[in-house]
Design a protein that fits this description.
The protein is mainly α. The protein has one domain. Helices cover 77% and strands 2% of the residues. It has a two-stranded antiparallel sheet.
């Protein structure tokens, strides 16, 4: 735990990048069957080191972390069929977990007095976590109302999830290629919310860090 506490932001960011972009560097089968679950567990552990500092919520957050880890291990060892109740629970737990981690990162960055390497890694990790939260929002909408997003391969859940993850990040970055489109009102509102969240994060959180760094350099 001491290692994760000291290098919590670095470990969180690096493991997150490996989790999201690992398929670019490792063989597809090796990544999906072994490395992806390992990177996810490592990332969850690094996230726990971040949220563990919230003393008043420590017991609840420990239960949340253990529950998420147990469900992920069950999925890794036994495999959960696509969109069963257990997998829905796993998705919900991971979404809540990353939401809490993102809020904890924002809180720590907001209250920090000195801009260090940890803070920079924390800001970057928080932005990546926003993309995953957005992905689970889109996934929940599509699961509740199939066809909410056009341009998805509904016959292949794995491909569909990858497309929604891609949709989440390009929306967060306000790129919007138009290859995947929100069809329903709730999907459209969720897309707007994700786009605004990305802009607010860059303008407010990153702006605060830059401002503190400038003041720090002046002193």
């Amino acid at each position: 735990m001491n290692f994760f506490q000291k290098y919590r932001f670095e470990t969180f960011l690096i493991s997150f990048c490996l989790l999201v972009f690992g398929s670019l560097f490792f063989p597809h089968r090796l990544f999906e069957s072994l490395l992806e679950p390992v990177f996810l567990i490592l990332n969850l552990s690094a996230g726990f080191a971040i949220i563990y500092r919230l003393e008043q919520w420590r017991r609840f957050l420990t239960v949340l972390f253990v529950s998420t880890l147990v469900f992920e291990l069950v999925d890794f060892i036994f495999g959960l069929e696509d969109y069963t109740n257990l997998q829905v629970i796993l998705f919900a737990l991971i979404a809540i977990y990353y939401l809490v981690v993102t809020l904890a990162i924002i809180r720590e960055v907001w209250h920090t007095q000195e801009v260090t390497r940890n803070v920079i890694f924390g800001v970057m990790g928080g932005y990546l976590a926003l993309g995953v939260i957005s992905f689970f929002m889109f996934l929940g909408i599509e699961m509740a109302d199939p066809g909410s997003f056009s341009g998805l391969d509904a016959t292949n859940p794995t491909t569909q999830n990858q497309s929604l993850l891609y949709m989440a990040y390009i929306t967060l970055m306000s790129i919007g290629y138009g290859d995947i489109l929100p069809n329903t009102q709730i999907a459209q509102k969720a897309t707007i919310l994700v786009g605004l969240s990305g802009q607010f994060y860059i303008v407010i959180i990153t702006g605060i860090v830059v401002g503190k760094y400038i003041n720090q350099q002046k002193k």
